[in-house]
Amino acid sequence: MTTFFDAPNGTPEEAPLERPRVITSLGGGHGLFQTLRAAQICSPTTINAVVTVADDGGSSGRIRRELGQIPPGDLRMALAALIADAEEGGLWENLLQHRFGGHGALAGHALGNLVIVALTDILGTSQHALDQIAQLAGAKGRIIPVCAEPLDLEAEVSGLDSDARVMRQVRGQVAVAATPGQVRRVRIIPDNPEPNPAAIEAILDADLVTLGPGSWFSSVIPHILVPGIVDALAQTKATKTVVLNLTSEPGETAGFSAERHIHVLRQHARNLQVDQVIVDAKTLSSQTERNHVERAARTLGAEVSFHDVQAEDGRGRFTSIHDPAKLCAALLASFAGARKR
């Protein structure tokens, strides 16, 4: 069954909606940033961000290699997303996101990454460090690394040889995201990491759990490759909602349809069951395509709802990112729809 919420202002045309008290969002990078901004608008009492730790590029990659800590970049972005919109919050966001220029040892490092690393050294764990920074900065939620150890990403990629059937192993999040071939499957190393107990608790205690949007193979799927996270998703009584990307991404998901995004989730976690899949109504207007997506979603036990969730630029043109206010409306609608099932 499909539910349509296409009101022009992004507000569902069914109301009033029950609001989730605890929202736990799984992801990383810019996709998680937008989801967390949407979660704030939904006004829950608690927001948890469970963040991937597989990044190996840029400042995060240097910190992994030189200090052996989990990559802080996605954690920093999630912190920035949850900082209050007040003037002081804006200053903290700018401070955490500030990136050093020049050509010296600090060039390319984000200040927030270094703050997380320093406090981890002082307090002993990255979780303690993130909790302390969140408190100091007035963040409206908790940032939780999915694991306390850095993870590596390895992909099976086709199309790197003249024979398209030949599979090559590509290792590293940056290499996977930028591959000119087509990613078929990914795995994490180690393949059975210990999940952060705080991440398990955040999933079990949630009323609404979100997965996606974001880089599908490098920010979204790594979560469902951690066995303890999959178990928690199976046990939680929360409404579980997958938010699909608006478009495929160059490199790892080039040419992927919305339907294929869902099939790839299923491929990597056969026992994964979710309640709702949110799809942008404008990017999937064909009824045939919608039927295919609905059929794919049923393999996850999910219903599909189509919403206007695209952000617009200052000239009224649609962008490739989710609008937080529209996404909040979609999340509330899907939450209410799942509760009625």
Structural class determined from secondary elements: alpha/beta
Helix content: 40-55%
- Summed up, the domain count is 2
Shape: globular
Q: Give the count of helical stretches.
A: 13
Which strand order does the major sheet show?
Answer: 1-11-10-9-8-2-3-4
Number of strands: 13
* Mean pLDDT figure: 91
Largest sheet: 8 strands, parallel
Query: What Rg, in angstroms, do the CA atoms define?
Result: 19 Å
Structure description:
The protein is an alpha/beta fold and 341 residues long. It folds into two domains: 2-53 and 188-340, Rossmann fold, CATH 3.40.50.10680; 56-145, no CATH class. The chain has helices spanning 29-41, 58-67, 73-82, 87-97, 111-123, 126-137, 173-178, 197-204, 216-220, 227-235, 258-268, 287-298, 324-340, and strands spanning 2-5, 22-27, 46-51, 142-145, 152-158, 168-171, 182-189, 208-211, 239-243, 276-280, 303-307, 310-312, 318-322. The strands form three sheets. An eight-stranded parallel sheet has the order 1-11-10-9-8-2-3-4, sandwiched between helices. It has a three-stranded antiparallel sheet with strand order 6-5-7. The chain has a two-stranded antiparallel sheet with strand order 12-13. It comes from Corynebacterium glutamicum (strain ATCC 13032 / DSM 20300 / JCM 1318 / BCRC 11384 / CCUG 27702 / LMG 3730 / NBRC 12168 / NCIMB 10025 / NRRL B-2784 / 534). This is Putative gluconeogenesis factor.
